[in-house]
Specification:
- By secondary structure, the chain is α+β, with helices and mostly antiparallel strands.
- It folds into 2 domains: 134 residues, Copper binding periplasmic protein CusF (OB fold (Dihydrolipoamide Acetyltransferase, E2P), Beta Barrel), CATH 2.40.50; 132 residues, OmpA-like domain (60s Ribosomal Protein L30, Chain: A, 2-Layer Sandwich), CATH 3.30.1330.60.
- It is 38% helix and 23% strand.
- The protein is built from 7 helices and 11 strands.
- The chain has a 7-stranded mixed β-sheet with strand order 3-2-1-6-7-4-5.
- The N terminus is likely disordered.
């Protein structure tokens, strides 16, 4: 036979309050939304209740959790789902038991009545509404509510900052895409102009990630390309550096320029290519990839410098 434990209503309400704290964490961080009075509550009295509440007829005792706030009014939802609006006035005493504050005082203010916190409320009738004469809560519940409110606010702030960063990144990516497209089109026009040059051949040399040093294989291939181009009348070299899509546009642009510059220096200093037979080198970051940047092999093929051999069409017979 299983034993069934009976718990007092306060524990039930506290449990509901904890669930409400977790379920409505977002609403804790946001400003409380105004709550309309129900038809059963009648017309609420406007103005501020008096500081001395003695002599007013007693109202019902409420036990539940704060489910909404609007100005100096709070809504208390009880275990059966009944929601009651009460006014917090100058004569309302708000007390916390448990002493987590570590101070000699135990009286709190309206700002401590956070959404979701379990409370016990004694009321008096004021006009056709209710005024809280005393509000009791547990210091441990208050601490939990404050932690949730602080953590949620921080999370929202971080999310807001992240959204801002993403928006800036999206804008930068869009600008980079436009620059890359323009660069690619300019490049095609530069060495593919049908009115001036024929592109006879292209030699690609490859680089490690983030590097612009030439491998022994690349050095050998560059001098071989220079020798072949030197046998062609009036041949020019156009050197263009590229990267894969890893990293920011700014980093890739600098890296592509350094790779192109390193190749130009090697062609002139080690391979004997004359500077006047070379067009100004260019770096085009990750524009015009030759392979898929989503694969390791594709990125390796895109980390390259293209040495294009150009010959005037008038010389080439076209």
């Amino acid at each position: 036979m299983r034993a069934i434990e009976k718990r007092p209503l306060w524990n039930t309400a506290a449990s509901i309050g904890v669930v409400a704290l977790l379920a409505s964490a977002a609403s804790v961080a946001a400003p409380p939304q105004p709550v309309q009075a129900s038809a059963e509550e009648g017309v609420l009295v406007t103005g501020s209740p008096p500081a001395d509440l003695s002599g007013f007829p007693e109202g019902p005792d409420l036990e539940g959790f704060v489910s909404a706030r609007a100005g100096n009014k709070v809504e208390v939802t009880q275990a059966d789902g009944t929601a009651t609006m009460v006014t917090i006035g100058e004569g309302t005493e708000i007390k916390a038991s448990g002493g987590f504050l570590g101070l000699s005082r135990d009286e709190l203010g309206l700002e401590q009545l956070l959404n979701g916190i379990p409370v016990k409320v004694e009321t008096v009738q004021w006009g056709r509404g209710l005024v809280a004469s005393e509000v009791k809560l547990k210091a441990s519940d208050l601490k939990t509510a404050q932690m949730i409110q602080s953590g949620t606010a921080q999370k929202f702030a971080q999310q807001g900052a992240k959204i801002g960063e993403n928006a800036e990144a999206t804008e930068r990516n869009a600008e980079a895409t436009q620059r890359n497209a323009a660069a690619a089109e300019a490049l095609r026009g530069r060495f593919g102009d049908i009115d001036k040059y024929n592109v006879l051949c292209t030699t690609n040399v490859y680089f490690d990630t983030g590097k612009y040093a030439l491998s022994p294989v690349a050095q050998s291939e560059l001098c071989e390309a220079a020798t072949q181009a030197g046998e062609m009348d009036n041949a020019l070299l156009l050197v263009v550096g590229y990267t894969d899509s890893t990293g920011s546009y700014e980093v890739n642009q600098r890296l592509s320029e350094r790779r192109a510059g390193r190749v130009v220096n090697y062609l002139q200093q080690q391979c004997g290519w004359k500077p006047w037979r070379m067009l100004a080198p260019s770096g085009f970051a990750d524009a015009d990839p030759t392979a898929d940047n989503s694969t390791r092999e594709g990125r390796a093929q895109n980390r390259r410098v293209a040495v294009n051999v150009l010959v005037s069409k008038s010389v080439d017979g076209m």
